[in-house]
Structures are given as C-alpha cells and as structure tokens.
Amino acid sequence: MKRIRFIAVAAVAAAHLCHALEAHAGAPVCATTINRTNLIPCALEGSLTAKAERQGLEAVKGRQEAASPVLPSNPVLALSGARREAAGQGPVLNWYATISQEIEIAGQRGARKRAADAEREAQEKAVAVTDREVAAAAWRAYFEALAAREEVRLFSLLESLTTKVATATRAAADKGLVSGIDADVAEMAHARVVQDRIGAARRVEQAKATLLHAMGHDPRGEVAIEGELVPIAGVEAFAAKQDGHAIDERPEVQALEASGRAHEARASMYRRARIPNPTLSVFAQNDGFNERVFGVGLSMPIPLPQPVGRTYAGEIAESEALSRRAQTEAERTRRALRLDLAHALSAYAALRAQNELYTAERLGRAEQSLRAIAQEIEAGRLGTREAMTSQQALLEMLRAGFETRKNLALGSVDLALASGYPLERGTP
C-alpha cells in the first residue's frame, strides 16, 4: 500500500515538473538575451501601459456582464402581521404577503447590452493601438541599442586609424619633414575621434538602459542584444498596398467609431428609460376575522416634466453630443493617418535612396583608404595637409554611411506605425 502511494505521489510531482518546464520553455527569455524573435513578446509582457489597457478591458467585460440580467431588479417580498380583537370575538392573527416584480417594457436591456458591447469593442481596439505603440517603442529602443553598439565599433576603428596618422605625422614633424602645426592638427583630429568614441560608449549604456526599461527590467542590468541594424522586413511593401479603405480598418479609427456607437446606444437607453416600468404584484392576506383574500396588482410611476420630474433630457443631450464628437474625432484621425502615411512613405523612400549611396563596397574602400593614410605619410607619398583633408573626408563618409543605416532602420518603424503594420505580432 505504501509503495502504491509513493508511486502516485512521484507521478504527480513529475507531472507538475514537466508542466513547469514546458511553461518555462514557452516563455520568452527576456532577462538574458534580446533579439528580433523575443523583442515584441518581452516588450508587451513587461509594459505597464499594455497591462493597464488589458485591465481596462476586464473592467468593460464586467460592465458587459452587468448589462446581461433579464430583470431590472430582484422580486420584492413584503410580509406583515397584526393581532385583531373585538367585543365578543377572540383574538385573531391577521397576515399580509405580497410579491412584486418590476418589468421593463421599452427595451432598456437591449440598449444597455448594445452600449456595453460597443464599449468592449472600443476597448479592444484601444488595446490593439496600445500594443502597437508599445511594439514601436520597443523597436526604436532596439535599433538605438544596435546603432549605439555599431557606433562604438566604428569609432574604435577610427580611433585606431587616426592614432596611426597622428603618430606618423608627429614623427615626420620631429624629422623636420612637415610643420609642427600639421602634427598638432592630426592630434586634434585624433582627440575629436576619441571624444566621439567616448560619447558613443555613453549612448550604448543609455540605449541599453532604455531597452531594459521597455522590457520591464532593471535599467542597470546586463543583457545580450543580438541582431543586425537592418529595417523591419516587409514594411515598405505592406505600406504600398494600403489604400483609402484600409484606413477604416485601423484600430485607431474603429475604437472611436465604437465609442460613438456606445454613446448613441446610451442615448437610446435614456430615451427608453422615459417610459415607466410597470410593477406587477400578487398578494394574499388573512384579513378581518380570518377572511382570506387573494389578488393581483399593477403599479405604474407617473412621469413628470422636467425640471419637476426626471426625463433624462440632459443625459440624452450629453450622450448624443459625445457620439457626434467621437464621429468627428474618427474623421480627424482618418485625415491624420492619411497624412502620416504620405509623409512616412516619402521619408522612407528618401532614406532608402540615401542609404543606397553608401554601399558596402564603397564603405569598405573608404576604410581601406583610411588605413593606408598612415603608410602613405611614412612613405612620403602623401603630404600631411592632403592627408588631413583625405582623412576628414573618409571619416565623414563612414559616419554618414552609419547614420543612413540607422535612420533607415528607425524610418521603417515610423513607416510601420503610419501604415498600420501589425508590429504587435512581432517579426514575420
């Protein structure tokens, strides 16, 4: 018996362990490594803004459930008793029992349900908008971190190369081959690159802290950031397919339209609430001297005109005005989205054209030429001033190539957000 019990306990423990391992395996690894695969799941999991919107959706679901009961109120049971005596009669116990129920006859429940359904739809679209904005912010932080890392690598390379140029120029100045001023200029150019490298190292830490903060982790923590500084795949093709009808499918527009329908349904609910709800009752009593009485009753509120009574005129006017405002906001959002898409398409096309100027082959030749400047100075085939001019031009070219790649990656995020690309789903 003990052996069977031990086997059962071991089986249960093994099942729980397997379940825990499966859950851990399915969870995104956010604390140690961030890449394109787990970036968006980690950002959505750690975002308090997205969490708050989902909690708002839970509240709307509760409001939707509150609108579902068929009866407007619970039945009311009234009981009363009395003792009656008369001359020549013994004491008699009189009792009275009444059960009553209010009934809606103007469709108020349907109006409440339509309002709650529209509010839920609006909140679901708001969750989608928030998730997309959180994903866009995560992509920007990710690209900034990758760019800062590459910037450090670039300036470390430039620092090494300008060190050789400055050393060669100073050696030539010591031999009297060039002016000491040229050596000072070369050293100042080197110092400027070192300063840029220090600034890039600072930006690496800031970008990493921003990315960790977006993931919900300690900004001072350590994390491995994997990936290349390339745009989000498929964004430009997706944006090119968007037409005027696609704007109507955007969650930003649909949330406002659903909000307008919710206000209109609420106005309908208030209009229906003007119609009095009858209350049906059934009663039984033992009256007088054991006289049994049974019957039914009907009661109806008497509506009075405002301001004496309550006609919900203010609530109706408010709800209708809010509905019109939501429709106006939806149209304003459509216009803004069309403009944002036009701007994002033109900006991304310009960024892509700029990036195509700095091909990998051209940047590779610039790096090789920069490496060769120090040797050319030592060999006497290149004058110091010409070397400084060439070095500055090559440095600017490498920097420009880096900046165009960074701007193109960030521009893909802007284009994705402007075109309604489903960033919250992660990388395709």
Features:
428 residues, alpha+beta, Outer membrane efflux proteins (OEP), four-stranded antiparallel beta sheet, two-stranded parallel ribbon, 11 helices, MdtP/NodT-like
Report on this model:
The structure is a single chain. This protein has 428 residues and is an alpha+beta fold. It has a domain of 263 residues: Outer membrane efflux proteins (OEP), CATH 1.20.1600.10. It contains eleven helices and six strands. Strands 2-3-5-6 form a four-stranded antiparallel beta sheet, with no helix packed on it. A two-stranded parallel ribbon has the order 1-4. Strand 5 and strand 6 form a beta hairpin. Helix 3 packs antiparallel against helix 4, helix 4 packs antiparallel against helix 5 and helix 5 packs parallel to helix 11. The protein is elongated. About 3% of the residues have low confidence.
Tell me what the CATH architecture of the domain at 40-69 and 111-255 and 338-425 is.
Up-down Bundle
How would you describe the oligomerization state of the chains in this entry?
single chain
CATH topology of the domain at 40-69 and 111-255 and 338-425: Outer membrane efflux proteins (OEP)
Give the end-to-end Cα distance, rounded to a whole number of Å: 55 Å
Q: Rg, please? A: 38 Å
- Name the overall outline: elongated
The CATH superfamily of the domain at 40-69 and 111-255 and 338-425 appears as Outer membrane efflux proteins (OEP)
Number of strands: 6
What is the CATH class name of the domain at 40-69 and 111-255 and 338-425?
Mainly Alpha
- How many helical stretches? 11
Spans where pLDDT lies below 50 across 5 or more residues: 15-27
Structural class: alpha+beta
- SSE order, one letter for each helix or strand: HEHHEEHHEHHHEEHHH
Strand content: 5-15%
GO molecular function: efflux transmembrane transporter activity
InterPro entries: MdtP/NodT-like (IPR010131), OMP_efflux (IPR003423)
Protein name: TolC family protein
Family: Belongs to the outer membrane factor (OMF) (TC 1.B.17) family.
